[in-house]
């Protein structure tokens, strides 16, 4: 009875758990169930494969429960144990799942509370960062000076936010894009504050020192000023020579890279000068080919703005130009004819050669070119009085020779011989009949170190520092009306303002 009722109850429980009806196949009742040898007979039935069968209500199949044991205790009570198959209902797995879910829930709640705390901190410091950004922008744009204390306060706030970011990064696990973004912004803010602190307009201490220095100089000037002090002479008028020569030069102004590109390091550029229309004239750019010798293409621009923007240009091609000693005067371009000692005059309106003339005894084809610049044995120049040529001869043993030319016929009008060796000079130009020669001091500095005055025949040394953007100066052209030098510097177009010695009238 014990075993039968137990199995009946067990099958009923399984049926209710699975939602199926269960049918019990009973075991015939025999007196052997109550006999002392029941256990052995029951166990032998278990070993022999005895089973109870259950059938689902749909009649789809039969499931066997053969993994059971039975015994009788001292009182004669039947004790049965049945081990259900695992695929019937995984109770132990469900219990483990519940336990794991409980642990994860606790961890989630703990991390969620941390995130809420960090979010509140981030919001607080985000407001501080916005406020700090506004303050820095005001300091950057405003003309009001700030003291060092203002910058120190800002630095303290930035350092405080940096400490918060370190805390957030240490406590955060997983994705931290917001924290990383805040860290980048704070780092940028630190660099901006340091940059602002170095700016003169916001460095009140430096400005105050400058103001004090200027006030002292002004007082000294007022104290030394006499009532009958002579009035300083005005600057020389453009295109005139009412001055005592070049005494200084401005810093270079970079116009731009030549229109053919960085590879075209050699060439020349300038502005056409005509005494009849001194304030007007085309801008011209003549880069040599990459061999540094052949002048094949040049461009003309009506205005400097057109040159800056590379628009409205006129481009021409020639097949006979050599070197960077080119000059433009009265709408004509003058150059050394390729592979000869001749000078060619080209009409810029028609791009046709109007005159060619041999320069007597001139060395050519790299015999006596400038230092670090090839194929410029014959260097044309323009000043207030007209067209000149700078060159060397075998008779001069390489020293510089200056000749004044007739710009129409290219015949030599007069010649002067100097004592300066041409290959030791980096370049040269002529102002008011005075030759000025340069030499290289280093990769960023030239020096106007020598002059020869054709008006007096005197020559001497100078010490005028000339800054440059690149290492080599390929050509220098002077414009009398603008009183500027147009320098071709390793492919870059530079110009300089000349400063003259003022002489009283």
Automatic annotation (TrEMBL):
Residues 43-66 are annotated as: Disordered. GO terms for biological process: signal transduction. Keywords: Secreted, Signal. Residues 43-57 have a biased composition (Low complexity). The gene is OLFM4. It is found in: Secreted. Residues 240-502 form the Olfactomedin-like domain. Its main location: secreted. GO terms for cellular component: extracellular space. InterPro entries: Olfac-like_dom (IPR003112), Olfactomedin-like_domain (IPR050605). This is Olfactomedin-4. Residues 1-19 form the signal peptide. It comes from the Eukaryota.
